[in-house]
């Protein structure tokens, strides 16, 4: 697929030795191929160098503007978010210069936390996790598009995007969902099931326009983890999450296939 050639790049790197070496090699090759490297906000492509954490930090630093392209250079552990290996840099940079690459739109997750006297809205790429502040059992009413699903009791609720389905969600038995599906996934964390409590054990995959509402009961404060970053909230009345109209544009190689990525990262 043909797109506009990339000319200007901005680099976002980890400080591990592996990432530092990869960044040095990348800078050398970018200069050899006459790309412009900048620290300013005027760039065509943002490149994270490291693993999945580096990719998320790039998002938090830039707020993922939708007029930019983004890609990850693998120099971490799993690096599922990364599209390019160091040994493939030469061919990848040639593709960028020629405009021979794919662009995949990934929807961001929008979450609004309504408290007694104020509200706060935030965006996430992978997921949010909702837990009790003291990490005791949390009690939540779960509503989906104004239809009550359940009274949840357990360690917490995880709500992930399709992009985040291969991240924390996977650790709790959630399903792997291709990025192009633009879904939300609701996954229970250690749900209680007994004669007293009846809680759904399985994940639910929901369409893109779905609105999920969580209403705390008996809460002493809520911890919301957004893409690995914790924040505590008091007097929470309702948490609403949905997929945003805002998204990010990821660069993919023309030979990219989601199933091959799954096989390579999880089964090889």
Overview of the structural elements:
With 268 residues, the chain is an alpha+beta fold. The protein has two domains: 8-101 and 253-267, Rossmann fold; 108-246, Tumour Suppressor Smad4 (Sandwich). It has five helices and 15 strands. It has a 15-stranded mixed beta sheet that branches. The longest helix is centred in the N-terminal third of the chain and has 16 residues, at 17-32. It is elongated, with a radius of gyration of 20 Å.
* Sheet/helix structural class: alpha+beta
Supply the number of helical segments: 5
The CATH topology of the largest domain is given as Tumour Suppressor Smad4
Percent of residues in helices comes to 10-25%
* SSE run: EHEEHEHEEEEEHEEEEEEH
Radius of gyration: 20 Å
Shape: elongated
Mean pLDDT reading:
93
- Regions with pLDDT < 50 over 5+ consecutive residues? none
CATH class of the largest domain: Mainly Beta
CATH homolog superfamily of the largest domain: Probable inorganic polyphosphate/atp-NAD kinase, domain 2
Largest sheet: 15 strands, mixed
Number of domains: 2
Q: How many strands?
A: 15
Characteristics:
268 residues; alpha+beta; Rossmann fold; Tumour Suppressor Smad4; 15-stranded mixed β-sheet
């Amino acid at each position: 697929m043909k797109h506009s050639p990339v000319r200007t790049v901005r680099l976002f790197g980890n400080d591990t030795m592996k990432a530092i070496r990869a960044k040095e090699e990348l800078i050398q090759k970018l200069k050899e191929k006459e790309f412009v490297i900048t620290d300013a906000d005027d760039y065509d492509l943002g490149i994270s160098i490291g693993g999945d954490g580096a990719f998320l930090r790039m998002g938090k630093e830039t707020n993922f503007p939708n007029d930019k392209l983004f890609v990850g250079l693998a120099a971490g552990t799993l690096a599922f978010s990364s599209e390019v290996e160091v040994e493939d840099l030469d061919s990848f940079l040639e593709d960028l210069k020629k405009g021979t690459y794919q662009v995949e739109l990934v929807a961001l997750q929008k979450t609004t936390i309504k408290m007694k006297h104020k509200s706060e809205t935030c965006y996430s790429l992978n997921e949010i996790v909702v837990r009790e502040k003291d990490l005791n059992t949390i009690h939540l009413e779960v509503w989906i598009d104004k239809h009550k699903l359940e009274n949840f009791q357990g360690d917490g609720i995880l709500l992930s995007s399709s992009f985040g389905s291969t991240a924390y969600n996977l650790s709790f038995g959630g399903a792997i969902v291709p990025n192009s599906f633009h879904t939300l996934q609701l996954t229970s964390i250690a749900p209680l099931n007994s004669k007293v409590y009846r809680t759904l054990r399985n994940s639910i995959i929901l369409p893109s326009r779905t609105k999920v509402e969580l209403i705390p009961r008996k809460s002493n404060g809520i911890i919301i983890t957004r893409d690995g970053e914790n924040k505590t909230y008091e007097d929470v009345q309702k948490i609403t999450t949905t997929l945003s109209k805002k998204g990010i544009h990821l660069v993919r190689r023309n030979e990219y296939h989601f199933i091959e990525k799954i096989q390579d990262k999880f089964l090889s």
